[in-house]
Design brief:
This protein is of the alpha/beta class. Helix content is about 25%, strand content about 30%. The structure holds flavin-adenine dinucleotide (FAD). Flavin-adenine dinucleotide (FAD) binds next to helix 1, strand 2 and helix 6.
């Protein structure tokens, strides 16, 4: 099976930044991307909040990320990750093109648009139903369209659509927008934008193409038709995390939980960007996450290599596994180190709290435990609580 050091899943801003940092740190980096590199930002033509660039398009920004990453020669490969599995402590990526054994995995697969789930939505997708104003807005020159949603994306995209459409209804289930003040003020000042409050879509209807929405007023329960030629759905996003959802810890909705080092609940699996359970989902935060995750993955890989050379390769090793967060263990380590220096009997101390993978590999279930190894093969072990027991076992 193909073996790689750092495998990054997804070539959006998080994945591409991680590729830059990973390669600059000297790692072997493979980036798996199911489509074209760039991620979600490629579908917007207005980016005004990437520091240092006052205005650009999503395509141009994504292209500059890609070119920058390519300078450091990571391998980009078109492949869809279907599953991440743990086999004997090894992380195996299952793709439609085969399996890859990764030392560290970075999940940077972003998020996807949520669907309304109403009758007609799937049937009319591409025939009037769209999830991307930039991609499809121009098809609705002088037509009446509806935007569904009330957040930033819905309100901003409604403004964008007024360049083409004669009228843009914004259908929202509440009686005010959730979006930030500035986009809401812009939308409300635009004569082409007409809010439709307290309403949800019951169905999307038409002939060959969309002709109307059936809306239900959530206060009166009245159902009425709204004639439109296009429907732009912006009702939130879902994380692309299904392929790891039964492996790593996620919050409600499937967003991957990480600590500040972007480590997930599984050692050696990291997550960055929009797929994470995080406060802000933007290019700048995704890029920051990607950098942190790559450096944390580098530290993790270096540690694995170090442990391999310290524990498993030498002729004889006495390894004491303790937990660095247990004061009694810390005290024992100090006594053992002093005795080791005095007696000349070497003892390698391993922090089992931070090296769960090595604990798993050697099947150590309790700490402190002393293990005698010869070229990585166990010669004996003993659970110890004090220096006397350590001495008795090693002398
Ligand atoms: C319409 C729109 C406008 C936006 N405007 C702005 C803006 O102006 N400024 C801003 O900062 N942010 C903006 N954003 C948000 C920004 O695009 C995201 O926060 C950012 O792209 C997140 O980056 P990411 O790398 O985490 O994920 P993504 O950009 O989502 O990239 C994830 C990548 O992973 C790939 N992938 C997913 N699943 C798999 C799999 N199983 N196997 C292989 N590959 C996979 C996807 O194809 C994708 O390329 C906008 C988003 C949208 C939708």
């Amino acid at each position: 099976m193909e073996k790689r050091e750092l495998v990054i899943l997804g070539a959006g801003p998080a994945g591409m930044t991680a590729a830059i940092y990973g390669r600059r740190a000297g790692l072997d980096v493979l980036v798996l991307e199911r489509g074209l590199p760039g991620g979600q930002i490629t579908i917007t033509d207005e980016v005004e909040n990437w520091p240092g660039v006052q205005h650009t398009t999503g395509q141009a920004l994504a292209e500059s990320f890609r070119k920058h990453a390519e300078k450091f020669h990571p391998e980009f490969r078109e492949a869809t990750v279907e599953k991440v599995e743990l086999r004997d402590g090894r992380k195996i990526l299952v793709t439609e093109k085969g399996e890859i054994d990764a030392e560290a995995v970075l999940v940077a697969t972003g998020a996807n648009f949520k669907k309304l789930g109403c009758p007609g939505e799937a049937e009319y997708t591409g025939r009037g139903v769209s999830y991307c104003a930039v991609c499809d807005g121009a098809f609705f020159e002088d037509e009446v369209v509806a935007v569904i949603g009330g957040g930033n994306t819905a309100v901003e995209e409604a403004c964008y659509l007024t360049q083409f459409a004669s009228k843009v209804y914004v259908v929202h289930r509440r009686d005010s927008f959730r979006a930030d003040r500035v986009p809401v003020e812009q939308a409300m000042a635009n004569p082409k934008i007409v809010p439709v409050w307290d309403s949800v879509v019951e169905s999307i209807e038409g002939g060959d193409m969309v002709e109307r929405l059936m809306l239900r007023n959530v206060k009166t329960q009245e159902v009425s038709p709204l004639p439109v030629a296009g429907v732009f759905v912006f009702v939130g996003t879902d994380p692309n995390s299904r392929f790891v959802a039964d492996l790593v810890e996620t919050s409600k909705g499937g967003w991957i939980r990480t600590n500040p080092r972007m480590e997930t609940s599984v050692e050696g699996i990291f997550a960055a960007g929009d797929v994470r359970d995080t406060y802000l989902r933007q290019v700048v935060t995704a890029a920051g996450d990607g950098a942190t995750a790559a450096m944390a993955a580098y530290a993790y890989i270096a540690e694995q290599v170090h442990l391999q050379s310290v524990l498993l390769e030498p002729e004889r090793v006495n390894a004491l596994f303790t937990s660095s967060i247990d004061p009694a263990h810390v005290a024992l380590v100090q006594q053992v180190e002093a005795w080791s220096a005095e007696s000349g009997i070497p003892v390698s101390v391993v922090d089992g709290y931070r090296n769960g993978r090595m604990m798993e590999k050697l099947r150590i279930l309790e700490m402190p435990t002393l293990v005698k190894l010869q070229k990585g093969v166990e010669q004996g072990r003993r659970a110890v609580t004090n220096l006397e027991e350590v001495r008795a076992f090693l002398q």
